[in-house]
Specification:
The protein is α/β, with parallel strands linked by helices. 43% of the residues lie in helices and 13% in strands. The structure holds (~{Z})-2-methylbut-2-enedioic acid and iron/sulfur cluster (SF4).
Length: 347
């Protein structure tokens, strides 16, 4: 696509949320990226949380992290550029070991992925021998390698139910675990890191059914029931959607709770006068850009600083300088892949 055509397309989508001169600059950058992408036989993935100018200009695929990693694996491209955060790029590498995977920012972390280590899981497995371990996709490869099966926010309850085990260790998101406990009807406990945490004597009294962890998403934990009540007071017909990384109080007060892709589908398939979406704010911008007739209420004081590290400028540098290459040691990759493939089979 020529730069002028790209500019036209971006202008149609973004003219209500961005000045024209800015759209021109973005179109120029995106056009350079797309040219280089072709030359280098690369595929670009755009997570649902990317800012609109990037989201609508360079990705070959847009979606959640698992969808993107699976689609990239099916291509014959040599390079995957993941516009998302590090754990997502690792998932792409797990499914495409023969491809070079690039992350445009060096760190692009995640508070959930950083909340648990492989050693934490090894201790839990000694405390609760034989209990299956489910880890959320928002974890690093070395953590996925220690678990039996992964899950996403859309299949978490189905994976837990499919295990046919009375008790399941579910890591690392405290709120997702509580939301899953409510959905599956399971009791839940949280082993705390007390002074005797390292004591790996097997637990004797296992009458609980879901063993959680204390990780939280630093963005979703900030949304409150007050946010919902304030919006409902001002707009009584607002439809509230929340991500299951929000607290169980917030998801219970919402009209719908689901993964990023499930929330996008919900808005596309319904015809409400207003929507409030409690997740990273860029996703609301992206929905508005594609559907100008939908009224999205803005609640953007909590942003994900890690997602914001991925810019068009850095994506161009990433392709020019072949950086930052995501490496996963092969033994870890293989064990992590088993957990990811098992999730795909079970869901
Ligand atoms: O895995 C993803 O893409 C995340 C973290 C969000 C979601 O629910 O789609
Ligand atoms: Fe991690 Fe939350 Fe940012 Fe997603 S929004 S990358 S879960 S910190």
């Amino acid at each position: 696509m020529t730069e002028d055509k790209l500019y036209e397309e971006l202008y149609q989508k973004l003219n209500k949320i961005m000045p024209e001169a800015e759209i021109r600059v973005k179109a120029e950058l995106a056009s350079q990226i797309n040219k280089l992408k072709k030359e280098k036989n690369a595929v670009i993935l755009g997570h649902n949380y990317m800012e609109p100018a990037l989201y609508y200009s360079i990705p070959d695929f847009r979606g959640d992290s698992l969808e993107l990693a699976r689609k990239a694996a099916e291509t014959d491209k040599d390079i995957i550029v993941f516009c998302g955060v590090r754990f997502m790029a690792e998932t792409a590498k797990i499914l495409s070991p023969e491809k070079t995977v690039l992350l445009p920012a060096e760190k692009a972390g995640c508070s959930l992925a950083e909340s648990i280590t492989p050693e934490d899981i090894r201790i839990l497995k000694k405390k609760f021998p034989g209990v299956p371990v489910v880890t959320y996709i928002n974890t690093y490869a070395e953590v996925k390698a220690e678990c039996d099966v992964c899950c996403t926010s859309s299949n978490a309850a189905a994976i837990v139910n499919s295990l046919k085990s009375d008790t399941v260790i579910f890591l690392p998101d405290e709120y997702l675990a509580k939301n899953v406990a409510r959905e599956t009807g399971k009791h839940i406990i949280f082993p705390s890191k007390t002074p005797n945490w390292q004591n790996t004597e097997p637990a004797t009294d296992i009458d609980y059914r879901l063993i959680g962890w204390h990780g939280k998403c630093e963005v979703h934990e900030l949304f409150t029931v007050d946010d919902i009540e304030n919006a409902r007071r001002q707009f009584p017909d607002v439809v509230v959607l929340s991500h299951p990384e929000c607290s169980p109080e917030v998801t219970a007060a919402s009209d719908f709770s689901g993964s990023t892709s499930a929330m996008i589908r919900y808005v596309e398939e319904h015809d409400a006068p207003h929507y409030l979406i409690l997740t990273e704010c860029s996703m609301g911008d992206n929905i508005m850009a594609a559907h100008p007739e939908k009224e999205m209420l803005r609640l953007c004081s909590h942003r994900c600083p890690h997602m914001a590290e991925i810019t068009l400028e850095d994506t161009l540098k990433s392709l020019q300088l072949n950086r930052y290459v995501i490496e996963v040691p092969e033994d870890i990759r293989r064990r992590a892949e088993r957990a990811v493939r098992r999730m795909i089979e079970l869901s």
